[in-house]
Design a protein that fits this description.
Blueprint (H helix, E strand, L loop, with lengths): L17 H10 L2 H17 L3 H11 L3 E5 L5 E6 L2 H12 L4 H5 L6 H12 L7 H17 L2 H5 L1 H5 L10 E4 L15 E4 L8 E11 L5 E8 L10 E6 L10 E6 L10 E13 L6 H37 L1 E2 L2 E2 L4 H33 L4 H32 L11 H8 L9 H14 L2 H11 L2 H4 L2 H20 L1 H6 L1 H18 L1
Parallel strand pairs: 3-6, 4-6
Antiparallel strand pairs: 1-2, 4-5, 5-9, 6-7, 7-9, 8-9, 10-11
Helix pairs in contact: 2-6, 3-4, 6-10, 6-11, 7-10, 10-11, 10-12, 11-12, 11-19, 12-13, 12-14, 12-19, 14-19, 17-19
The chain binds flavin-adenine dinucleotide.
């Protein structure tokens, strides 16, 4: 008789994840945990039932760009699957963005949200990407928006009602640069006001995920403003008019990508797109950084969620696949291979939820000056470290399925392709390492990190691993002082990885 391999099965991802419960229960006030855990159980069930089905549909029925109608009229529609639409609606219903702004759990609201997103992301077909930008846009409006934006767009972005919920794009990257936006070519021209949209934008945005969103935040250079990044301002646009026609925007094409295929990422041409300034003229990069600081935290959480799902599948497969007379999970070398991925995962979990808590404290006004500095320094390293480690873990998980891992419809190969983006968008590993260096140099983060490690992290620093990492950090910084900026820059990645390990290690044993 033919042999048929039993497939790996997922169960409620809240119940199958003891670390989530153990860690959050330890750190959260009991009343917050009680409320949150009931919700997380519900969400953990959706993640392996409805959401999983919808995400599989979204991955099968990929976005299609329809440039013209049958009669040659330019329409630039993007057709999305029903699964994608349902996942967007579910995000609103579960309050994935709203939780952070209602702030019912005070400084723990971002932790609550992080846990929801962590469970949502791996069954979301990357709807998590527009959600990240939506949340970032809400934060930018909260900080810099005028009354009109606060009354209108902000309410939509933070709505729990799928009928009124909006998502937002974040359009920074142009052909000339994504890491370096100083050469931004999109020009903003003052125009006669149309409902407050008193600017017109012209240019090409080279990577725009969430092209189906209702609004976007973007960088452009007002006519006559200086060259370089200092001349950029932050603008707000609504993509469609009441008839759902794009407002002077052409969709040039959808990107043909390595992964994240269910997510519509497009190239856009702005042809006099009506827009409003966000805040005063200028300071665009500073303003949009409030947005991408949120999206970077999302990236860390999504990396974590993706990594957890990959591991769940690897363990589930190790429980059903037999080799050399034993289940894979009972083969010592296979077991230790997966266990090692769990060790790194636990550290990443601690680091990510630490950043989420700091962000929540900052937004609620309960963060001390030192905690705000920590948030500034740890956000880029958490993003870069979790993104990179998630790719490594997904690669190992593909291998843990043997040949089956390489076969598309088994599903783990896709996870590896998807994971690769986590170390690219929202700042590549190098770009974020340099951002971390800036935090050390310009915001005096080094003494704050040192104090944190020597107090909260004292137990970890006393371990041989912690000691070696700490000594290497000190030695790199000393050599940087001696050998100059270029040397320090060349070591920024190593430095970032070491500090990420140190903070994560410190959190793990605290
Ligand atoms: C699927 C997908 C969706 C995206 N969606 C969006 C979106 O919605 N909105 C948006 O604005 N952008 C989006 N992006 C763009 C993304 O944010 C950029 O591609 C990314 O920030 C890198 O910019 P770049 O492509 O210009 O690379 P480059 O800046 O050209 O980088 C090339 C290489 O050089 C390295 N590098 C650059 N500068 C330095 C330095 N100073 N020192 C050392 N190394 C350096 C980088 O690390 C990288 O390895 C998306 C990208 C992808 C892949």
């Amino acid at each position: 008789m033919d042999f048929h391999q039993a497939p790996p099965r997922l169960t409620n991802t809240f119940h199958s994840d003891p670390l989530l419960e153990k860690t959050l229960k330890k750190r959260l006030p009991p009343d917050v945990w009680t409320k949150m855990s009931a919700h997380l159980k519900h969400v953990g069930e959706l993640a392996v039932t409805d959401w999983l089905t919808w995400s599989q549909q979204a991955e099968r029925e990929l976005p299609v760009h329809v440039p013209f109608d049958p009669w040659g009229e330019r329409v630039d529609q993007i057709r999305m699957s029903a699964g994608w639409t349902q996942l967007e609606a579910a995000a609103a219903t579960e309050g994935i963005v709203a939780t952070a702004y209602e702030r019912n759990e005070g400084e723990w609201s971002r932790v609550y949200q992080a846990a929801l997103l962590y469970l949502y992301h791996p069954s979301s077909a990357f709807v998590s990407c527009p959600l990240a930008m939506t949340d970032g846009a809400a934060r930018a409006i909260e900080l810099y928006g005028d009354d009109e934006l606060k009354k209108n767009a902000f309410k939509h972005l933070t709505s729990r009602d799928p009928k009124t919920f909006w998502t937002s794009g974040q359009w920074m990257t142009e052909k000339i640069g994504g890491s370096d936006v100083s050469g931004t070519e999109t020009v903003a021209r003052k125009s006669s006001a149309q409902n407050g949209f008193d600017w017109q934008l012209n240019g090409v945005k080279w990577f725009t995920s969430a092209t189906t969103s209702q609004m976007a935040m973007l960088l452009a250079r007002p006519e006559g403003a200086e060259m370089g990044s200092r001349g950029l301002s932050l603008f707000y646009t609504e993509l469609r008019d009441p008839n759902q026609n794009l407002r002077n925007i052409e969709i040039l094409r959808l990107k043909d990508k390595l992964g994240t295929k269910a997510l519509p990422t497009a190239e856009l041409r702005l042809t006099g797109t009506p827009a409003r300034l966000v805040g005063e003229m200028g300071g665009g990069v500073k303003k949009i950084s409030s947005l991408f600081n949120v999206t970077r935290v999302y990236n860390s959480i999504c990396s974590l969620g993706q990594w957890r799902r990959a591991l769940d599948l690897a363990w589930a497969y190790a429980d059903v696949r037999v080799a050399f007379g034993k289940k894979l999970k009972d083969l010592p070398l296979h077991r230790i291979t997966l266990k090692n991925l769990e060790t790194d995962f636990e550290k990443a979990f601690e680091l990510t939820f630490f950043v989420a808590h700091l962000l929540g404290k900052d937004e609620c006004g309960t963060a001390t000056e030192k905690e705000r500095t920590l948030l500034r320094a740890v956000t880029p390293i958490a993003k870069l470290w979790t993104g990179k480690k998630c790719v490594e873990a997904c690669s190992e998980v593909v291998e843990s399925f043997g040949g089956a891992g390489y076969i598309e419809d088994v599903g783990v190969a896709k996870m590896l392709r998807d994971a690769q983006v986590l170390s690219i968008w929202e700042g590549t590993t190098n770009v974020l390492s340099l951002d971390f260096l800036r935090a050390l140099e310009k915001e005096q983060a080094a003494p704050v990190l040192a104090e944190y490690l020597q107090t909260e992290g004292a137990r970890y620093l006393a371990t041989p691993k912690g000691q070696a990492e700490w000594q290497e950090v000190q030695s790199l910084l000393a050599q940087g002082q001696k050998n100059g900026r270029d040397y320090l820059e060349s070591q920024a990645r190593r430095l970032s990885f070491l500090v990420a390990e140190l903070i994560a290690g410190a959190r793990l044993v605290s």
